[in-house]
Amino acid sequence: MTGRLNGWNRFCVAALLGGALAGVGSLAWAQSGAALETLRERPAEDEVIYFLMPDRFENGDTANDRGGAVGDRLVTGYDPTDTGFYHGGDLKGLTARLDYVQGMGATALWIAPPFRNKWVQGPPGHESAAYHGYWITDFTQIDPHLGTNAEFRALVDAAHARGMKVYLDIVINHTADVIRYRECPQNDCGYRWKGDYPYSRRGGLSGEAINAGFTGAPGGDFSTLTSPAYAYTPYVPAGEQTVKAPAWLNDVGLYHNRGNSAWYSEARMDGDFAGLDDLFTEHPRVVQGFIDLYGQWIDDYGIDGYRIDTARHVNPEFWQVFVPAILERARAKGIPNFHIFGETYDFQSGTAAMHTVVDGLPTVLDFAYQRVVQNMVTGVQNPDAMGYLLMEDAIYAGGVETALKLPTFTGNHDMGRIGHLILHAKPDISDAELLDRSSLAHALVLLGRGVPVIYYGDEQGFTGDGDDRRARQDMFETRVPSYADDRRIGSAAGPFDANADMYRRIAEMSRARAADKRLRHGRVAVRTADQTPGVLAISRLDDDGETLVVFNTSTEARDVNVAVETGSAEWRALIGSCPARSAAPGSVSVSLPALGYLVCVSERPA
């Protein structure tokens, strides 16, 4: 049966691709209505998310490598030998590799922003390209380097045909760097604070009176904002006056125009993000504009979720309106479990929870969880740190039920890969120990609390040399010397090797997670959390039984007695070696290898 299902999935992919590209629609006949309904009904907790940058994943069409432009890399943005430029990956390539992604157990794709970007930015001699997708000019079109809107539709349809969801990475805080300020021609404008440059004066306290009665507060009278020249005098260079889409984004009055962020206090919300044009998200035109814009992507393509970039840099009142509107738009499309998670990039769970309580974000990326995982597998912290962190799950809006939906991860495109983080802490580590520590990190994510995110390439043992572009390697054969010489974790015969050590280990963990509903939905009980390198034991509970997950952060094998439910008497193994019976009512004895982990299941007797 499995072989026939896989064959049918492959047929669907081919049919959907061919049909969409030929302009005959999505070939909905190839999808079972019941199958799509099942996908729609699947809650966020059931997903394993695979996060990737299309430009770095697979090149399915070399004709779009330069985005249809002619010229050098400063025109086309294309230079596959430079970490800061486009390398040629695209949506066709991703669609062709869905078998590979699904083979490791991923159920949802999180795709870095695929929208049209300003291809090259930066001061002369220090330019780089928008291969990553976060310098958007046209929010309505796929970037030509990645393909077309029709090819995006083909990807979504192909993913849905095999039961996989598609999440888009979206940006609201800013657009590409288009707006300039006349006071600083070098485009190096520092942040100008409201106290020194109020909305009511042109260019400072002694300037002429403007914008009478305007406060800038959400819900205020924005019709009184008649001049954007309160801090700087913004303008758009010739030739770029209409570069943004939808057209309302070209109005400079819809931006804060206060210069580069100072990263604290009011500047965290109102400053330009490293020069990127910071939108006036308090403005009702901006609020409704983004509801309409991102609602349309749901209407047109039936996508399943949004990861929100730089969410903490947007005022809470925006999210309080935007999130309910988008969830309602998704429900109207027949998507009751639309998954929204914000990037709040703070390693304190209290800060993350604040964004769910105050902002109303349904969930956020769990940076606090990532930092504890990183510290546990590098020896900086011990298992008790995870015990304390999980005790804080109740502080999220919705309590522990919300915590189960928080996406968790080992590393990412900004902070770097877990392999690099381990090597940075332990540069002399052996290959075997590096593999075990990386596996343990992924086990803490895939078998722990939350919705796991796999960062593309980790399953092939990528490590990288650091953060940002140094952690954005090509999955296909690379032409970047600093990528080619990276130390690898475990074995890998070549690109997209389904027999790579990390791929197989991640696949085993994903299978266990899929096989046991308690690993996805069960109540969390911390059983053991050592204060020295050693054991973390967590039970996942429901009315039908108990699933025990035990991790060993020590480089020595451990035998440990773990407290469990008194009714959990008989056990079977999902991963590792588990005893057949408890040692006594309320206690089970387990043995773990160094840096190992196991999953044991006890079903409540009928």
Please describe what this structure looks like.
The protein has 18 helices and 21 strands. With 606 residues, it is an alpha/beta fold. The protein folds into two domains: 404 residues, Glycosidases (TIM Barrel), CATH 3.20.20.80; 82 residues, Sandwich (Immunoglobulin-like), CATH 2.60.40. The protein has an eight-stranded parallel sheet. A five-stranded antiparallel sheet has the order 15-16-17-21-19. Strands 3-6 form a two-stranded antiparallel ribbon. Helix 1 runs antiparallel to helix 6, helix 8 packs parallel to helix 9 and helix 15 runs parallel beside helix 17. The longest helix has 20 residues. The radius of gyration is 25 Å and the shape is globular. The two termini are 30 Å apart. The N terminus is likely disordered.
Tell me the number of structural domains.
2
State the major sheet.
Answer: 8 strands, parallel
Supply the CATH architecture of the largest domain: Alpha-Beta Barrel
Q: How much helicity do the residues have?
A: 25-40%
User: CATH homologous superfamily name of the largest domain?
Assistant: Glycosidases
The number of helical segments is 18
User: In what order do the strands lie side by side in the largest sheet?
Assistant: 12-11-10-7-2-1-14-13
